[in-house]
Write a structure and sequence with these properties.
The complex is a heterodimer.
Chain A: H1 10-21, H2 27-39, H3 55-68, H4 82-92, H5 96-117, H6 126-140, H7 154-168, H8 171-177, E1 187-191
Chain B: E1 2-9, H1 13-24, E2 29-32, E3 97-98, H2 126-129, H3 131-135, H4 145-159, H5 184-196, E4 203-204, H6 238-248, E5 252-255, E6 258-266, E7 271-279, E8 285-295, H7 299-307, E9 333-342, E10 348-351, E11 358-360, E12 380-388, H8 402-409, E13 414-422, E14 431-438, E15 444-449, H9 454-473, E16 477-483, E17 528-530, H10 545-565
Parallel strand pairs in B: 1-2, 1-8, 2-5, 3-15, 8-17
Antiparallel strand pairs in B: 4-11, 6-7, 7-8, 9-13, 9-16, 11-12, 12-13, 14-15
Classes of the chains: A mainly alpha, B alpha/beta.
């Protein structure tokens, strides 16, 4: 799986449409559906460059995201392009104040690494990185009864949420790690064992 | 001047119905639509797009975020997202003035909000039509259930409604296609609620989505997000249903990008003779003439058009001799309810994105002693559903890495939620008026004054408490109530938010206290009809669109008969 997370092949598009149509829809309708689909790009991600994050910030996001959702028997957050998604959200969706808060959170991760390990987060060994992230995670999600988490833990909660959204809505996360519910009939009560993983 | 038999202003749920009925009865009909054209299938530009093809992954575009800049009002609704923003109005095109928070959600295209509506369809009963008479709020409806029942059937057979018959007096059954299934969690909760409360019922939503083919439209394929448009025509919209029927007659002309500026009134004949229209693109004005005019522009747009059509005979707005035009604005109040978790059932799952939930019909103030409340009049129903937690739950819990990924591979526990939709009383001091500002076309902007009253606020407490009581009786754990209303001039379940705005040109028996008669015909001007939500004299607690449709079809039948008799 390449990092071109915006990409889908024409064969996949056809397969998806075929599932939808189930052979019961007329040819002109099918042409219309395909038209709409093909006209809409399946834009490739060639020539992509971050617009908000610096190269080192982008790498910091990629490394943290990969720790949160690592490669297993399926690709992890980096291969799913979570860092690119984060840059897109910061550039095209976040209000300025929220974007700046997120960037300050990234700087704080590095500051913690320097204060504890004497070097930038990216220069730390993976085990040291995980130790740092574990501290952030425990502070961000206090045990029940301990009250609301302090405001400075906002960054890690947001980073984790963005990683999950970015991963499980990517083609890797949604169609490889999990799977989309197929188009067709609705079945209200099926044995979980018959599907074996969550719908994305 | 171009002359038609009929002009319909608006192309949404009621405009489409008016065009279909009038053209099928032989009238050459002009449909005027402010927004752009949207062609069935071709213009559903995000339909079936997987999440990873949407750059923001279908983010909800809330107020203040990038992507929502041109939609500061529309972005208030949770329905507004990356994948469907093109079916909402860019607010600068039709601004309004809020006194207190009132959220006016608007479509701006051929098809109007029929492309993005909630699709829940429930018949009214005489409990609703007699409500004003019984408790004295508002004026008596000029019709009863028997007047509209055959028209409900007529509409249901055409739009296609899937649902379950219950035999309840307060929620009459209709002509249903087979119901969608409930899931295991919903069935468990249903059993618990119905055992604990024999007078309450949990049923699958009655919804204008096909479960069987109908007139060339296909049954739902459960892709999920209807509001992106549906190429198989599985849910009712103007595009999938009424506009094709109108076009098939060869008698409809659809005029997109055309703002209805004002109605032309001939005092000598006491008739509306046509509509002044401004082209949105060229700003060029034109006049169109017709023998009968149907206003279907949406509740507030219709009333604004009447208010701004003044003449020496009607200085305060056309057909407003009563002075009630603009008053008695209503909406359903909602987002008060409860949710909880369901234990077990971890070997149960479901397949398909069902665009529908469960419904709990009204069980308060049904006319008997047992259901009577002392703290409020009228009632509410619940909409809700059960599901298993998705991967999103990982963002709210400690842990990351391989363990988290493994955990999110499976769905989480079951949870069940429900929120009430409550009836709103008609009150004179909830009203709209023309402000001293005008839009790009010289039309005065609406100023909206609307707040919830004591009855709504008292009912909300019961909506939350009764939901919690039922979930607990059904064995749910961690039951929590919610009430999104904030008040004090702040946003949060404010009026308009349910997008069921109704009233302001109400039907009634007395021309001195109502704008329209029992056939949606203006008391003052015989060839003028209003059949969108503006006509409503009360709100019931059920979703209103099918009632608008039935009233529209009935009014068209009446209008054409009267045209033939020569009385219009």
């Amino acid at each position: 799986m390449s990092e071109s997370n915006g990409e889908i092949t024409r064969r996949e598009a056809l397969a998806r449409v075929a599932v939808l149509l189930g052979g019961v829809i007329s040819a002109p309708t099918m042409a219309g559906v395909l038209d709409a689909a093909t006209r809409r790009a399946w834009a490739t991600a060639q020539g992509w460059a971050p617009r908000t994050l610096s190269p080192s910030q982008l790498e910091l996001v990629a490394v943290m995201a990969e720790h949160i959702i690592p490669r297993t028997d399926t690709p992890g957050a980096r291969a799913a392009g979570v860092h690119r998604f984060v840059d897109t959200l910061l550039s095209d969706h976040y209000p300025t104040a929220e974007r700046d808060r997120f960037l300050a959170g990234l700087a704080d991760v590095d500051a913690r690494a320097r204060s504890q390990q004497g070097k930038a987060f990216l220069a730390c060994a993976p085990a040291q990185q995980i130790t740092l992230l574990t501290e952030l995670d425990e502070a961000a999600y206090p045990v029940s009864g301990a009250g609301a988490p302090p405001p400075e833990t906002w960054f890690f909660r947001r980073m984790k949420e963005l990683t999950l959204v970015g991963y499980y809505t990517s083609q890797v996360g949604a169609a490889q790690e999990l799977h989309p519910s197929p188009f067709g009939a609705y079945r209200g009560d099926i044995p979980y064992t018959s599907v074996g993983r969550a719908w994305s | 001047m171009i002359t038609y038999d009929a002009i319909v202003v608006g192309s949404g749920i009621t405009g489409g119905w008016a065009a279909k009925e009038l053209t099928e009865k032989g009238l050459r009909t002009l449909m005027i639509e402010r927004g752009r054209d949207v062609v069935h299938r071709k213009d559903y530009i995000t339909e079936h797009k997987p999440s990873w093809e949407l750059p923001l992954r279908d983010a909800r575009l809330s107020v203040g975020t990038k992507g929502a800049e041109e939609y500061p009002i529309q972005a208030r609704t949770g329905q507004f997202r990356e994948s469907n923003k093109h079916f909402f109005l860019k607010d600068a095109k039709n601004p309004y003035v809020e006194d207190k928070p009132f959220t006016w959600i608007q479509g701006d295209q051929v098809g109007g909000k029929s492309l993005i509506w909630g699709r829940q369809v429930y018949r009214w009963s005489d409990l609703d039509f007699e409500a004003n008479l019984r408790d004295g709020h508002g004026v008596d409806w000029p019709i009863r259930y028997a007047d509209i029942a055959p028209w409900y059937s007529y509409v249901e057979r055409f739009i296609g409604v899937s649902g379950e018959k219950l035999g309840l007096a307060q929620l009459p059954d209709g002509e249903f296609q087979p119901p969608m299934e409930m899931n295991a969690g919903e069935n468990l909760v249903k059993g618990g609620i119905e055992r604990a409360f024999p007078d309450r019922h949990v049923t699958i939503g009655r919804v204008a989505i096909l479960t069987q083919p109908l007139n060339g439209r296909l049954p739902c394929h459960y892709c999920g997000p209807c509001e992106r448009g549906c190429s198989t025509g599985s849910y009712f919209s103007s595009q999938s249903s009424t506009l094709p029927a109108a076009r098939a007659t060869g008698r409809v002309t659809i005029l997109p990008n055309s703002v209805a500026h004002s109605l032309i009134y001939d005092a000598a004949k006491n008739r509306v003779t046509g509509v002044r229209v401004v082209d949105v693109v060229t700003k060029q004005a034109r006049e169109y003439e017709a023998r009968v005019v149907f206003l279907c522009a949406s509740t507030l747009a219709t009333t604004r058009l009447l208010l701004s059509s003044t003449s020496p005979r009607f200085p305060n707005g056309l057909a407003n001799s009563s002075g009630v035009l603009g008053h008695y604005l209503m909406d359903h109040h909602f987002l008060a309810g409860a949710s909880g978790s369901i234990e077990g059932l971890l070997d149960h799952y479901y397949q398909g994105n069902r665009p529908n939930g469960i419904y709990i019909p009204r069980f308060r103030n049904l006319g008997d002693d047992a259901s009577r409340r002392v703290d409020y009049v009228r009632g509410f129903g619940y909409q809700g559903g059960a599901s298993r937690q998705s991967w999103g739950r990982g963002g709210g819990e400690r842990g990351f890495g391989v363990e988290l990924k493994r955990k999110l591979h499976d769905p989480g526990r079951w949870s069940m939620g429900m929120t009430g939709f409550g009836e709103c009383l008609p009150r004179e001091d909830n009203y709209v008026e023309l402000s001293d500002k005008t839009d790009d076309f010289g039309i005065p902007l609406l100023k909206i004054h609307c707040t919830w009253g004591d009855n709504e606020l008292a009912m909300r407490k019961d909506m939350a408490a009764s939901a919690a009581e039922m979930l607990e009786a059904a064995g749910c754990k961690n039951v929590r109530t919610h009430d999104a209303y904030r008040g004090g001039g702040e946003l949060g379940a404010e009026p308009g938010f349910a997008i069921h705005e109704m009233g302001t040109a109400r039907m009634g028996r007395d021309p001195k206290t109502s704008v329209l008669n029992g056939y949606n015909q203006a008391h003052d001007v015989p060839n003028l009809f209003v059949t969108d939500g503006a006509c409503m004299a009360s709100t019931s607690c059920v979703n209103p669109s099918i009632t608008y449709m039935a009233l529209t079809a009935r009014a068209c039948d009446y209008a054409v008969a009267e045209l033939k008799r020569g009385t219009l």
